[in-house]
Amino acid sequence: MKNKTLIRTYKMAKPHLKAIAIVSIMSLLISIAEVVKPYIIKIAIDDYLAKGIYRNGFMTIGILGAIYIAIVILGNIIDFISTTTTNMIGEEVIYSIRNKLFKYIQYANIPFHDKTSAGKLFVRITNDVEDISTLFKDVISTIIKDIIVVIVIITVMIYLSIKLSLVALIVIPFIIITSVICTSILNKIYDKSKAIRTELNTFFAESIYGAKIIKIFNIQSAKKKECEKYTKSYRDERAKERNSTSYFAWNNDNIRTPSYCISSICKYK
Fold first, then answer.
1. For 116, which DSSP code?
2. Domain with 81 in it: what CATH number?
3. Does one domain contain both 127 and 228?
4. Per residue in 225-262, pLDDT tens?
5. Staple 108 to which of 15, 45, 112, 194, CB 3.0 to 4.6 Å?
6. Cβ neighbour number for residue 169 with a 10 Å cutoff
7. Does residue 185 contact residue 244 with C-beta atoms inside 8 Å?
């Protein structure tokens, strides 16, 4: 992402920084809950079920179960509030951007409208604004949560076993290198796919708005061929996008699998 885009994104997010901070804190709590749940199950299995006991000091397996259920319920409530808050931020951003864009288009000079087609302006106000909304609804909340989850999981892993943690983390450099390469390739594919989608939506908007003129000049056949050209290009780019995403996900799985196997061998040795 370019520096100008980052600055503009920050300006859009600035009125909602308090809400984003609250969502970040909620994400931290959700991440901690996600890590604590399997740890409680581990304690229940290793310290109670494996030994065939019900009570260990003042703690019983029933209390552990109650704690687990409480964490699940509390985590779901916090997740619901976090998701709702993030969606509200996205909707507020959409509302603000669309109004500003419409105002700009209304007061733009005549040469601007001569150079820019109505269909492209329509796409800018609808589809492109939705893409920005996705950034606030999904990316911001997800990336914060994922970073926190990774940090907490690595911390717990090191606490439980430094040796196994180091073995499991051997593949991290390879995953990082692969991710950087994959991201670079996928960004080019996504950009091209988005450009073709913009052209396709612009064509649809202009064809629908100018349906009468198309019929008057009897150019339906030419427009049909043009439509097939755009849809074929978009279909091909989407296929590249899906295939690349699937291949890179499969490649990452292949990198992680040896780590699991080595960790299992080290554990039982």
1. S
2. 1.20.1560.10
3. no
4. 988 998 998 888 888 888 888 877 777 666 666 666 66
5. 112
6. 15
7. yes
**Distance of alpha carbon 83 from alpha carbon 90, whole angstroms:** 11
Same domain for 231 and 115: no
- Residues 133, 219, single domain; the answer is no
- Whether the full predicted model's pTM is greater than 0.85, yes or no, is no
DSSP annotation string for 37-100: HHHHHHHIIIIIITTT-SEETTEEHHHHHHHHHHHHHHHHHHHHHHHHHHHHHHHHHHHHHHHH
The position carrying tokens 């983390």 is: 169
Q: Residue 203 belongs to what domain range?
A: 162-269
Q: Over its length of 269 residues, how does the chain's per-residue pLDDT go in tens digits?
A: 455 666 776 777 778 778 878 887 887 788 788 778 888 888 888 888 777 777 777 778 888 889 989 998 998 898 888 888 888 887 888 888 888 888 888 888 888 878 877 777 877 787 777 777 777 666 666 777 777 778 877 887 788 778 777 777 777 787 788 878 888 888 888 888 888 888 888 888 888 888 888 888 888 888 889 889 989 988 888 888 888 888 777 776 666 666 666 655 555 45
Tally of domains within the chain: 2
Residues 169 and 93 in one domain: no
Closest CA to 205 of 126, 100, 109, 99: 126
Whether 51 and 137 map to the same domain: the answer is: yes
Q: What does DSSP assign to residue 108?
A: -
Tokens in use for 141? 């909340």
Q: What is the amino acid identity at position 46? A: D
